[in-house]
Amino acid sequence: MYEINKNVPIPAKNREPGCTKYPFAKMEVGDSFLANTKQTTICNAAKGFEHRHGGAYKFATRVEGDCVRIWRIA
């Protein structure tokens, strides 16, 4: 059973609007980083970033052990 609470304020967001927790915008072609997440999670984040920036960025991912490495390729 769930308890319903009233008048609990929503905490402020930790990031600015349009910001991502991944450093896609700071990457240059050839740069990469290792993320401790599922490949589908990072791929979805990268595709969303690509879409929001009109296709100016392109990324590739590969699994490395328990992590995923993502490269900026364009």
What would you call the structural class? alpha+beta
How many β-strand runs? Answer: 3
CA distance, first residue to last residue: 51 Å
The order of strands across the largest sheet is: 1-3-2
Low-confidence stretches: none
**What portion of the residues fall into strands of 2 or more residues?**
15-25%
Q: Can you count the helices?
A: 1
Helix content: 10-25%
Oligomer: single chain
Mean of the pLDDT scores? 89
The global form is: elongated
Radius of gyration: 16 Å
Biggest β-sheet, characterized? 3 strands, antiparallel
Q: Which sequence of SSEs, written as H and E, runs from N to C?
A: EHEE
Description:
The protein has a domain at 27-72. It has 74 residues and is an alpha+beta fold. The chain has one helix at 39-52, and strands spanning 32-35, 59-64, 67-72. A hairpin with a 2-residue loop joins β2 and β3 (67-72). Helix content is 19%, strand content 22%. The longest helix has 14 residues, at 39-52. The chain has a 3-stranded antiparallel β-sheet with strand order 1-3-2, covered by helices on one side. The chain is built from 1 helix and 3 strands, in the order βαββ. It starts with 31 loop residues before the first strand and ends with a strand. The mean pLDDT is 89.
